[in-house]
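This week, work through this protein record:
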Amino acid sequence: MKSNHIELIELFGKHQLEGIDVVNELMRFNVLDQLVSSNASSREWGITPEDLYALAETSTVEAFGPVPYDVDTFRQLYGPSFKVELFEFISDTGYLEGINSGEEWSNPVERSIEAHSKTGELVLYAYVEEYASKIDDILQAYPDKKVVLYTDSDVCYSMLTRLYPMAQIINHWPHRSYFDHIFVGTTGMFQSSEDIVEEVANGLHNLVPEGTAQLFLPATMVQNPVGLNNMALQFFLHQKRVESIYEWAPLGVYEIVYGKADVKKMRIGIREFVTGEWKEISYIPLPHGVFTELPVFSVLNYALSLRSIFLPGRQLDRALGQDGIYCKDSRLSPAAREELASTGNACFLAIVGPQGNKSVAISAIEPVSGVYWMFPDKEIAYMWYTYFSSTIGSTIINEISMLVKGEEAFGYMLSSVRRQVLSAEAEAHLINEVDTAQSSFDEAMRSAQEAWTANIDDAAKAVIPPAESIDLEDYSDFKK
């Protein structure tokens, strides 16, 4: 947890305020700040703590309840509370579920704001619970009544309607409204990908005839292409107005850009986060029909096929992204990852080595550096260890490492690799085979090391001069 968050928790704790009560007061202070900022007289002449406390008692009680402290305590709490960002504090502490700060969404949200806030268009931002820290920027950039925020989280809806009472905030998809542009941003943090993609696919009907959309959908839609996931994926791939599909690594989403008119070819590629910025890697554009005919569609499949590498697997085979949790998975907070890692059953698969010469290592201890995948039990970890240690698997991970520049993006791109589903008996047999092979390898290495050492010792006799021993007791200083 961040040090400034710990300090604030300790400060509030001195006044018997803990957990969700701290969040409630931070929200109250945010609303007070909005009230003061919107008053010209207060901005010009300032306001005393006593006046601010009186304002809190008259204007915030309905939304946040009675003020649970006196004016002296208010004076001690109010100023320091603005040293933290509200939604970042919530994400870091875990005091509330169903809302995420979402700093990782800064680039796509800011690009959307820049492109649409000055056009006069009516814009819908969907699933804002996953990028709550950007809500202020969205509301300040757009004119009144030109932006609608949709959240599927009851907790987020309750917070936002109290923090921004004048904003257009909804908690159900607006099926009876029409928009010039729709922005969707979700990794599937709080809802299943099936529910999300079904809602979004149907939601394209809420665009005006020349409306556009920028859809960031969970990569799970592609990793697990069955049922509604597959139906939605095929729906998007068949849309002639889809201009491009990019996979964002390691954010874990597919960006689908839906334009104003039909296009003949669809752009496809990867956006990876490296050296502090998002960089684009584009591949050869092709007509939409080519991608719909692929046995299993993914950006990784297509990228490898351009290198004459055909990724094994069918739709019903398990993707790595379904089996494990990536160390940079944006759906989990660092605290949640630590909790999962400390369960005792977790097993880790680290990917080490330079680009083009990658190898894997399995361990029950979480790696302190590099990129790795975490699994709930050793059976799954052993399957992927065996896969990537094989000749085919080693070739695949090294080819994938050549597709991107950064380690974080490389580790994430493995999420689309697929394995066969094994029975419990087959899993146990696999573990035994791998352990036996490892033991034989270790024994062979020890024997080889001993033989090598013996041969070197024999050869060294011709190089090293003979040594003459001396008796230290012959020296009087030693005897004394």
In short: The chain is about 45% helix and 15% strand. The radius of gyration is 29 Å. The mean pLDDT is 90.
